[in-house]
Amino acid sequence: MLRNEDIIARVGGDEFVIILPNTTKKTASSITKRIRKKFELENKASDKSIKFDISLGISTAKNKKTDLINCYHLADQNMYKNKNNKTGCY
């Protein structure tokens, strides 16, 4: 699902960051859809019913000088908007 150059890191109890270098917003959106679908399939495959949800946020860096911390905060804000709206969007 991810490439060798992609980076995934746990940044909190249940929060993770995925850095996708050289990726367009369209490709990042496609990846987040695949991640969401994978979580849905894993939940359905379980013998026991476990209800959970996943909220995702996307932020893009326009150029290499973009501050990574600001990019992270924007993605975090987008994730919380989606979480509060329960839209399942990115």
What is the count of helical runs?
2
Identify the strand order in the major beta sheet. Answer: 1-2
Mean pLDDT reading: 81
Q: Which stretches are low in confidence, meaning pLDDT under 50 for 5 or more residues running?
A: none
Number of domains: 1
Please estimate the helix content: 40-55%
Classification by helices and strands = mainly alpha
As a percent range, the share of strand residues is 5-15%
- Radius of gyration equals 14 Å
GO molecular function: diguanylate cyclase activity
InterPro entries: Diguanylate_Cyclase, GGDEF_dom, Nucleotide_cyclase, Rev_trsase/Diguanyl_cyclase
Pfam families: GGDEF
Protein name: Diguanylate cyclase (GGDEF)-like protein
Structure description:
By secondary structure, this protein is mainly alpha-helical. The protein has one domain. It is built from two helices and two strands. About 5% of the residues are buried. The model has no long low-confidence stretch (mean pLDDT about 80). This is Diguanylate cyclase (GGDEF)-like protein. GO terms for molecular function: diguanylate cyclase activity.
